# Entry
Amino acid sequence: MLTHVLRHLEALVSFDTRNPPRRIGTGGIFDYLGAHLPGFRIDVADHGDGAVSLLAVRGDPRRVFNVHLDTVPSSPAWSVDPHVLRVTADRAIGLGACDIKGAAAGLIAAANATSGDVAFLFSSDEEANDPRCIAAFLAEDRGFTEAVIAEPTRCEAVLAHRGISSVVLKFKGEAGHASGANALEASALHQAMRWGGKALDLVEAEADAQFGGLQGLRFNVGKVEGGIKANVIAPSAEVRFGFRPLPSQDIDALHARFGACAASGALERYEETFRGPSLPGGEAAAVEDRRQAAQALAAQLGLQVGPAVDFWTEASLFSQAGLTALVYGPGDIAQAHTADEFVLLEQLQRYTESIVRILGNS
# Structure
C-alpha cells in the first residue's frame, strides 16, 4: 500500500500549486486526480483566482473527505528541489508532502483498494485565506451530513480548534506641532497606543476561559504604522491585529469589546478582513453538543482522538454549516510550511490503512 501512496505523492508534489500566486487552473493536478479515480463521478469547478475544486463521488455517500492541494510558497532555505519528492528510510520530503498532499495520495490509494460509497472534495485555496471552494460546496445541499478534513494531526482525530479573526483599525488625529498642549490627545498614534493597552488588558482578563483543553484568548498586534516625524502630531495611524477565540467565545461580541477599547471618536475605521470560525462551529451555546457528535463520529470510524489544537482549519466551515466535522490526517503541523517539509512514512501507511478500513466498512 505504501508503494502506491508514494507513487501518487510523487506525482502530486510535482505539480506547482503554490498559493500565492493563485495561478492554479482546472488541468494539471486535477487531471491527474480524475484519471486515477476510475468509477467516480467527477465535477471540476473554477471559482476564480486559483480557487479550483474537484468533487469525486462513488455511490451514494453521506460523508465527504476534504483535502486542500495548494501549498505555501517555497523558501530559499530548501536544500532540494521542493517539487521533486525525496524518500528516505523514514520520511517523504517535498513541498506539500505534510500539508497536505500526503493525505490526498492516501485517499487515492485507498479508493483504488476499495469499492464502497465515498466522496472526496479536493480544493486549492486553503492557503489563500479566501475559502471559495468550501463556500461553493456548502452553498448546495448535496445531502452530506459528515465531513473529515485532512490536515497534519499525526493520525489523531481533532474535534476542536480555535477560530481566527484579522482586523485593520484606522485612528484619526489632528496634525500640528508636537509642542502643542493638545499633542497627547490629538495624536492618532497616541490613540492607537491607548487602544493597545486596553486591548491587552481585555485579553489578559480572558486568561481563565477554557474549552476542550484550550485555554485563554490568543491575540497579536502584527503591525502599527502612522505619523510623519517626531515633532509632528500624527494625523493618522493604522493597526493590524488578530485574535484566536475559543469555540465558546463569540467572535462578534469580542469585536464589540475590542472596538470599545478605543476612545470615543478616535476610530475612523474598524474592519474585519478575515474570519474563520472555531471548531465546532455555530452558536456558542451549541458547540459542546457538536463536539460530542464529532467524538461519536471518531469512535464510529475507529479513530484515536487527539487534543484540541490552536491552528485553524476549514473543518470549522463544515461544522458551521451543520455537518458533523473532525480533522484527521498524516503528518505533524510542526513540519507544515517549513523548508524541507516532510511526512513520516509510518504516518502515510497508518493513515491510508485507516481510510481503507473506513471505506471497507461504508
User: Anything to note?
Assistant: The first helix runs from residue 2 to 14.
